[in-house]
Amino acid sequence: MHTSSAAAHPEAHPPDHGHDDHGHHELGFWRKYVFSTDHKVIGIQYGLTALVFLLFGFVLMMLMRWQLAYPGKPLPSSELLRAIFGGSMVAPEGHMTPDMYNAFGAMHGTIMVFLAIVPLAFGAFGNYVVPLQIGAPDMAFPRLNMVSYWSYLVGGLIMLGSFFVPGGAAKAGWTSYSPLAGISDTALSNPNIGFHPVFNGQTLWLIGMVFLISSSLLGSVNFITTIIQLRAPGMTWMRLPFFCWAQLVTAFLLLLAFPPLEAAAVMQLMDRLAGTSFFMPTGLVVNGAQVAISGGGSPLLYQHLFWFLGHPEVYVLILPGLGIVAEVIANNTRKPIWGYRTMVGAVWVLGFLSFIVWAHHMYMTGMGQGVATFFQTTTVLISVPSVILVTSLLISLWGGSIRFTLPMLWATAFLPMFGIGGLTGLPLAFTFLDLFLHDTYYVIGHFHYVVAPGTIFAMFAGIYYWYPKVTGRKLSTCLGHLHFWPSLVLMNGIFLPMFLQGMGGMHRRWYDGGAAYEQVSEGLLHWNTFMSKSAWLLGLAQIPFLINLFLSLKLGRRVENDNPWDATTLEWATPTPPPHGNFDKPVTAHRGPYEYSVPGQPRDFIPQNQPD
Amino acid sequence: MEIPYTVSARQDTGLWNAKIGIWLFLASEVMLFGGLFSAYIFLRLGAGSVPGYVWPMHVLNVPLGFVNTLVLIGSSVTVILSWAALKLGEWKNFKLWMGLTLALSLTFLVIKSFEYKAKFTHYGVFLKSGEVITGHHLHAADDHLTIVPDEGHGHGAAKGGHGETGKADAAAGHGAEKADAGHATDPATLKGVSRQADGSLRIEKSEVFRYANHGPKYNTFYAIYFTLTGLHALHVIGGALVLGYFFFRGHVLYQKAPEHLANRVEVGGLFWHFVDLVWIFLFPLLYLL
Predict the structure, then answer these.
(1) What is the pTM of this model?
(2) Is residue B10 assigned to a domain?
(3) Which of A93, A120, A213, A485 is deepest in the core (most CB within 10 A)?
(4) B9 in a structural domain
């Protein structure tokens, strides 16, 4: 890391450094690594926290897959699980109770979406890479950035804490539909457990969500302002790397789609704490007795508010991944990505359309034929920009002399995986097909192909790609292959049979994996053990990654220079790892982001900051 | 390390950072209140389809609401004047106008709290028969309630639908608040209700479906009323805290970088205008329509 020390480059100080009285303070440990305002430290904090949650959400699902494969059989180490999660979760005989299955299902979804993927894709990669790529010294509002992370962490800890209150974590699904979510985890739903009025699963879920939403709002304001204001001289809009465009659109989605969910969370909190009836219909009967509430509320209203966020959220999950894949593909095919301008246009159209497709999640609610037709039309429309994006990336491979580095392996695998996820979504857009497929495993397979082998593969591509910039060392290739190939096979082992099961009519919320509905699930049940074993093996396949991530910090091969991948974008023009303030000297962009293999040039790449 | 464009504008965008930041933040605030306003529309449209439930209208104190509207609009003017004073370098005028803004925000909150208190001490008892008895001084015993019924109009008992339609609808009266004198019955004649010596009513709990003050759980109108105005009041408090910080601690920054303080006041002022604007929607929506 010869370039990392400022002493080695005394001439590298920016000219105005002398009267900058902040730059030379040696910050203490707490300000440097814990309450840091440096976008890179915050990005790493986001990344590590999100990876922990990703693993935790995966463990929840591995336990659920035990119940699906071997319904009613005692869980492995059930005594320990009973000690951790309590008697209402693990039955005395050692098997998973329905409450535990519901809680784990709800929390798997919540944790994966709000605590793992979004913070990883947006919080971690966005924070670390975007200011570097646009040539900025930091985010526009560094302290707001810190608050954003801590708000996320508090929200996450509240969610985690909710597992250990009486009755356990929220059980009403990650969507928290009212009126179920309005009465669950209260004395109404089960008088025997002794739910606390505030410290119960569902209420804590809502409070946690308010923190997570606030975190996203602060983050998105910061990202948009940073990209608009802090681009380096010469970094015009059409010289912005595609990753930054993807993050910009993502930030707008978070900014405008999350607040209605915050409104819904506030109203559901009011329903639970103040006894209002925002989402509680008239004449609601629970356990045979009419609930003493005013009624007059609208359960459909909750679904509208939820999915107004929920659908743009899908694109929040995928767009940063597409951005990473675009960077990795351009770098490893040694070619400009195909159709950069088209992709920028498509990503904006996608962002806009994502605001007017939400009710395709609600075809079955009886909201009306006309409404359903409108949303069916917009949903089919949104496939156009999505296909443009994926096709552009696919064509980018054409005629390239591809280097199959570790990041490129993940990026290449991303394309067909995301393609399967996207194409299986098309039938769901149509109301008449959705009638049959709604809430079956087909839907689970569809969106998991988008998010699990889709986005998560892109996240891995990003981790393998930028790790050398963050640490100054490369991840081990051997361990990387041990991670990639089993993951690719096993991901398909989990999710491909879901299409078969779903088309066979298997419902997504069956607690016993369909054993009680043998007339429907006959011939499809045996897939359950296959899928569960795939999931557990997938867990094993992450061990090489974890070893690699931590051991390579000390043992990885040092990068030979600041730009080990021979890349063009500005993050590689910084010292390794970049110091507080990022660039040694003022940086200027002179050209587009992907000038690879320009004919007549001595090298096959021209960095953006290289003058003509 | 210094973040560029915190005070002076970037040339090609013509803006400094915080100005973009606050507009983005306000955009998200629009979506937040938009979600609640759409909830208002949903609940109000849905009210008609629920048997016996009539959306209460004109149940809030219009003169107080009107005064509060003027107070907030006034504070929007004074906050601009305080910013202009800073721009002109008139520190004393800044203190004057900012102090007035804070005083007006406090006035708004005091008036609002009187409105809230009037609702919180006004009760309604929903009988299983569908009748509603409204009044004050409700006390709950183990097996019965006592309440001093509202004077005048129908002695506080009402059937559903009387509030604004005037139709003698036989359905249950969840939500109707004002009784129509012509159709109301003496509540003491209802089953399980008897008048006591001091004029208050004794209501057997066996006949009561539920009872509540006119707080959020009274019906969906009060639910959205308190949620919207409560969230708005939180915004007023938050805004006042920020402006109060400029008022009390602004001199520190003013001595170092007056332009920076002016920018901050501008950002705070933009937020304050937004809070004002929300109220300008809330007042007609909740008080007049």
Answers:
(1) 0.93
(2) no
(3) A120
(4) no
